[in-house]
Amino acid sequence: MDLTGKTAIVTGGSRGIGRAICLELARLGANIVFSYAGNAAAAEETAKLVEQTGVAARAIQGDVTSADAAKELVEAARELGGVDILVNNAGITRDKLAARMSEDDFDAVIATNLKGAFLMTKAVLRPMMRAKSGAIVNMASVVGIMGNAGQANYAASKAGLIGMTKSIAREVASIGIRVNAVAPGYIETDMTAAMPEAAQQAMCSAIPAARPGKPEDVAHAVAFLVSDEAAYITGQVIAVDGGMAM
Ligand code: NAP
Questions:
Q1: Which of 26, 76, 89, 214 is the most exposed place for a label (fewest CB within 10 A)?
Q2: Cα of 7 to ligand 1 centre, how many Å?
Q3: Atom of ligand 1 nearest to the CA of 142
Q4: What phi and psi, each to the nearest 5 degrees, are found at residue 57?
Q5: 10-13, long-range: CB within 8 Å, 24+ apart, which pairs?
Q6: Which residues in 88-116 are b (16+ Cβ under 10 Å) and which e?
Q7: 7-238 belongs to which homologous superfamily?
Q8: What is the share, in percent, of the chain residues with pLDDT greater than 70?
Q9: What is the pLDDT of residue 208?
Q10: How high does pLDDT run on average in the chain?
Q11: Where would I find the beta strands (DSSP E) of the chain?
């Protein structure tokens, strides 16, 4: 796979899965523009690691729930050469059983995980339509397929992303733009480290591959989906979960 000369936008690239995606796409030759919410030190580290691969990196602090922040990322990608790839990776959890979940917890997760991906997609579609090419990957989750007690908001956001992936894929397939989703299972990042120990153990015991995933496992699937090798693949959801959701 070769992404030389392409530019990729990755939301939430400062840590975890997003950082691994930035590094993998950079290793394959793409310039990287990524966003982060507030962790400047982690963002600086990602940018440094990306630049060490020999491509350009731009780290932009910005909330994915803002349409203006989306435009800023697109502008930065244009300055680096174009808007070829978008990975909607930024996401948050606010776990609670539904009976105890506040409206704020529900709204915040939907706004970041689902509406954020919509705003970012909307911002890249025009330049991608003009170029008659582009590849978008949305970061869903096995939880969006299977559901998970305590994650009604998160599961709804990820199931919504899957529906949005397929809808937009149908809208733009004939003009050379592909939209796919990746559905990770249990991946070792800050997000899963914050889960209660019992929940971590329950999820890990449901993995047929008998090991948690690594951010790089997800990054490899994303790299394939945005590459020319996946030119005839659109509207799909690829689970990267050690067999959890089969
Ligand atoms: P993480 O370690 O918590 O990192 C989250 C990233 O998103 C950080 O870069 C963070 O920036 C950024 N972010 C959060 N809210 C944002 C906002 N409003 N605007 C812009 N950036 C924002 O998460 P992760 O585990 O790598 O997860 C990445 C994606 O994979 C998420 O969509 C998650 O739902 C999905 N996923 C993860 C797992 C898993 O097991 N880890 C499984 C399935 C799906 P800061 O560093 O500045 O805070």
A1: 214
A2: 21
A3: 43
A4: -130, 135
A5: 10/34, 10/35, 10/87, 10/89, 11/35, 11/64, 11/73, 11/87, 11/88, 11/89, 11/90, 11/116, 11/117, 11/120, 12/36, 12/37, 12/64, 12/89, 12/90, 12/91, 13/43, 13/46, 13/59, 13/89
A6: bbbbbbbbeeeeebeeebbebbbbbbbbb
A7: NAD(P)-binding Rossmann-like Domain (3.40.50.720)
A8: 100
A9: 97
A10: 97
A11: 7-10, 31-36, 57-61, 85-88, 134-139, 177-184, 237-240
Inform me whether the pLDDT recorded for 220 exceeds 90. yes
Backbone dihedral angles phi then psi of residue 31, each to the nearest 5 degrees? -70, 150
> Which atom of ligand 1 is found nearest the CA of 16?
26
Reported as a single tens digit per residue, the pLDDT across 155-188 is 999 999 999 999 999 999 999 999 999 999 999 9
Q: At what angle do helices 103-110 and 152-172 cross, to 10 degrees?
A: 30
Average pLDDT of the segment spanning 210-225: 98
Residue spans of the domains in the chain: they are 7-238
Tokens 């244009």 -> residue: 78
Residue of 10, 14, 17, 240 with the most ligand 1 atoms within 8 Å of its CB, for mutation: 17
Q: Is the pLDDT of residue 150 over 90?
A: yes
Which residue, judged by its Cα, is nearest atom 31 of ligand 1? Answer: 91
User: What gap in Å lies between CA 181 and CA 162, rounded to an integer?
Assistant: 7
- Tell me the pLDDT tens digit for each residue of 15-67: 999 999 999 999 999 999 999 999 999 999 999 999 999 999 999 999 999 99
pLDDT at res. 240: 98
